[in-house]
Amino acid sequence: MNDILRLRKELEKAVLRNDIEKADKISDQLFRIQGGMESDTVMPAQFVDEIIERSKQKSGGQKSMNMKKFISIVAIAAVTAALGITALAARWYGIRDLVFKDSGNEAAITENSDISDSATDVEASTDGYVKEKADLIVLQGYPDSNEYKASVEWNLFRAGYDTDGKLLSEVGNGSNEYTEKYPLYLVYTKEMAEKLEEIVAKYQLKLHESITVVSSGEELIKEANVGQFIKDANTVLSGYVYNDGTFHFDGEALLKNGRKIDYQFGNYVKGTFSDTYLNIGDASSYAEWEYKTGSGQKVSLALGDTKALVIADLKNSYVVINVLSGNSMITVDDLQEFADCFDFSQIK
Question: Which residues contact 316 (CB under 8 A, 6 or more apart)?
Answer without folding.
Answer: 269, 270, 347, 348
